[in-house]
Prior knowledge:
The chain is mainly α. Helices cover 83% and strands 0% of the residues.
Amino acid sequence: MTQPADEGPDFPVRIAEFLEALAERIRSLTVDRVARVITFITLGMVAMVLVATAFIFFLVGLFRLSDRLIYKLCDCGGSMEIAYAVVGGVFLLGGALLWAKRTRAERQ
């Protein structure tokens, strides 16, 4: 007996390879992309926590530094309220400079 042209001794092997290629294609379109996105989201969250922690440490150090400078410059007892006012003034000045730069760029 002769076998049809579609079927041959390697027909089961071709079917198995086709199913494996199909599963690999579906995995590359779904699971691999989602895994990449989840990895980037996780790395972003870790980076955000580290940046927030560094910013908090920076602010605490800035307040303590300004408190010590005020205490050394004048004999006012090293009050933290003055340190808050100094740091707030620095941020206010920085914001005013950025605001002025923004409005100059819009006029041109």
